[in-house]
Amino acid sequence: MRRPSSLSALRAILAKDLRVELRTLQSVPAMALFAVTTFVLFRYGLDREALSGSLAAGVLLATVLFAAILAINRLFVAEREEGGFDAIRLAPVDGTALLGAKAAALVIYLLVLEVIAVPIFGLFFLDSWSGIPPLAGVLVLADLGLAATGVLISSIAANSRARDLLVPLILLPLLVPVMIAAAGASQDLLAAGGPSYGGVAKWLAVLAFYDMTFAAVGFAVYDYLLED
Amino acid sequence: MKLPSLRVNAIAATLVLLAGFALVFFYAPLDADQGFIQKIFYLHVPLAICSLVGFVVGGLLAVAHLRTGDSRWDARSYVAIHLSIIFGVGVLITGSIWAKASWGKWWVWDEPTLVSFLIVFLLYATYYPLRYAIEDRDRQTHYTSVFAITAGAFVPLNFVAVRMAQSLVHPRVFATANGGLPGSMLLTFLVCLAGMGLLWLALVRFELAAKSASASLSRLRRALEGEPEIPTQGSRIAPAAPPSAPQVTT
Question: What pTM, to 2 d.p., does this model score?
Fold first, then answer.
């Protein structure tokens, strides 16, 4: 049976999520505030006023990753509490529309977060900003990976008893390859003497491969998460 | 696919493992560099291979569960992952002992195989809290299957990523195009690997048999006490709710 409404359903759910976020401002401001506070913590935890290379990459990516956990935790709360899951199940649309919409919403949240947090990071820690523009590509690929696994784990955890606990517990080990690859790419870009591009392509390929693998897994299994 | 009986499987596992260990101690030569401690290789590496293969097999069984909707596949997937986690504890312990003996440290970070195994192990350790945090039986089996598939896909990917990130220190005994391992060591290793694989399979089947026996025992006990039979598998069309407690959505 052809379901002509799949893409428009995705767009409708995404628009709904973004509207809710704009009106309630639940996720993104919290993530941004969290990120800035974490930078301050790192400044004293590491006792450095300037960062470069692998240290800079680690601080930035660990912060983004933990901030993402905040959004991922909240991603399905409204659906669960207000009956969104049931509505999707009743509506004649693919479950993957929900998956796609939530992943897109998460990517948008993360991009907004990075637009706010990366300049602040640069202001706080970086001597030269020349590595920032190419860093955008790494962050976008990392965001896609975060969204692919995040949506899957978030919707598993949303229906369990210990959901706030389960999301970081399951997600962090799953995100280790993202951290490895994104940090590997950005440590060259944030190197002290200006960015170097020698090893970046390899890591971008790993990130892209990770994104595609988990997007495919999510696409394949997501219907089973909604079917009850 | 028809497997031989559990008894045959268990006896075969015992015999092959005994033969393997006899070969380890009386046939395989001492390693020129590491001496006697290298013999832990015949325990550590088969354990690791069985554990990782078991994780991936758990994912494949979960695929079978989602495709067929038969909860027996979920039980198999659960037990496969369960045994692989137990084997994984063995891998980490034997690996640490080997690392301490040959590199002088209990844990080495620049050693990709050790680190990626730890990450995989940490991920699978969350399988239990996930499984027991979901009360609804149908949902539990579906969600843990989704987790098992995701994690099964993660295992090879993680190994690639970690290996790329680090210098190559781990003894790569097979990588040197048949030149790394002498024939007598390879034979011993293969016998140990086969024995460990049979042991894993026997333990999985034993655990499954124990689970189904205790399930039918409690079913019989309920029948004996005259309680109404609770269907073990909620029907797809009308999920069976317990008559007394109203269904609470969590």
Answer: 0.80
